[in-house]
């Protein structure tokens, strides 16, 4: 894993990708830092990170699009597949290399509250809590981007899909308010989600029988629950989508709440999408 990690990390700094990512990230954060803390005189560094959370939509796809897509396009993934190194360690090495590039930025950002402290007082607990939440959010998005990169050999497709997925998660709170709240609409929405999940499972496994069987069983169970107690579905769409909202969980940190459940949630996303990436690679390895 260490060899993969060193190779990937080196590749970011032998090309312009790593430097551009770090520079652009720091420029955007610096602009918000000057506006909020220096011009408007807010003694709240968390406002800066809350304002720049949109930056993941633009930068994470660029950072992760080449991780697996480039390997597949150049056929160098065959060397990885035939190596004695387990796929899980290969994926972990790639993930930690990208995470290191991101954490370099966050290490520099850790200096900002200390600079601000020279001009007045601020809550370091809230400031560094928000930095922790921002770092966890970034790690979760990187894991998602890595998984998407493993599904295609086109870097452009990987970047576009990652952009759309991260954009949806960023806008999820607003999108939830547009969804209907009645139980029948909730049943329809969850049925559509089941179809999408089964379709993704089929793409990953190429096993129509398993995907279709799981989908049918899940749909029957969902329908039975709806028929027996439809009131359970009242407002359920909003509750479920709000629970999955990564931005809402990050907002807890900007409010000074060191939410352990949110930290576990972000870490779970990292492990889940690394697991899915490994499964996607294994399917390709044996096909």
TrEMBL record:
| Bilayer topology annotation | Multi-pass membrane protein
Chain segments annotated as coiled-coil in the UniProt record? none
**What would be an example GO MF term here?**
ABC-type transporter activity
Q: Give the stretches traversing the membrane.
A: 12-35, 47-69, 90-115, 127-149, 156-179, 185-203, 210-228, 263-281
Q: What is the official name of this protein in its record?
A: ABC transporter permease
Say which domain of life the source belongs to. Bacteria
Family annotation (InterPro entries):
ABC-2_transporter_component, ABC2_TM
Residues of the ABC-2 type transporter transmembrane domain: 44-227
Cellular component, GO, one term: plasma membrane
Keywords (alphabetical) are: Cell membrane, Membrane, Transmembrane, Transmembrane helix
Q: Give compartment(s).
A: Cell membrane
């Amino acid at each position: 894993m260490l060899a993969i990690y060193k190779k990937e990390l080196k590749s970011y700094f032998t090309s312009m990708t790593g430097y551009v990512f770090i520079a652009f990230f720091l420029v955007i954060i610096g602009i918000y830092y000057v506006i909020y803390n220096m011009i408007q005189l807010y003694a709240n560094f968390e406002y800066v990170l809350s304002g720049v959370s949109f930056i993941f939509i633009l930068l994470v796809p660029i950072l992760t699009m080449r991780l697996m897509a480039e390997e597949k396009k150049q056929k160098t993934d065959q060397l990885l597949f035939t190596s004695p190194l387990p796929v899980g360690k290969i994926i972990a090495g790639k993930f930690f290399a990208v995470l290191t590039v991101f954490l370099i930025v966050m290490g520099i950002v850790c200096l900002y509250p200390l600079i601000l402290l020279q001009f007045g007082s601020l809550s370091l607990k809230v400031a560094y809590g928000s930095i922790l939440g921002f770092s966890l959010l970034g790690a979760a998005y990187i894991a998602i981007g890595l998984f998407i990169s493993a599904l295609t050999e086109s870097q452009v497709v990987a970047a576009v899909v990652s952009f759309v997925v991260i954009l949806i998660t960023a806008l999820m709170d607003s999108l939830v308010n547009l969804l209907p709240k009645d139980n029948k609409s909730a049943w329809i929405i969850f049925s559509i989600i089941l179809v999408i999940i089964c379709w993704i499972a089929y793409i990953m496994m190429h096993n129509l029988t398993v995907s279709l069987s799981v989908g049918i069983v899940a749909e029957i169970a969902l329908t039975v629950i709806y028929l027996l107690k439809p009131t359970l579905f009242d407002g359920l769409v909003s509750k479920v989508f709000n629970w999955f909202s990564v931005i809402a969980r990050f907002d807890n940190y900007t409010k000074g709440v060191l939410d352990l459940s949110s930290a576990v949630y972000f870490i779970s996303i990292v492990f889940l999408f690394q697991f899915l990436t490994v499964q996607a690679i294994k399917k390709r390895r044996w096909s």
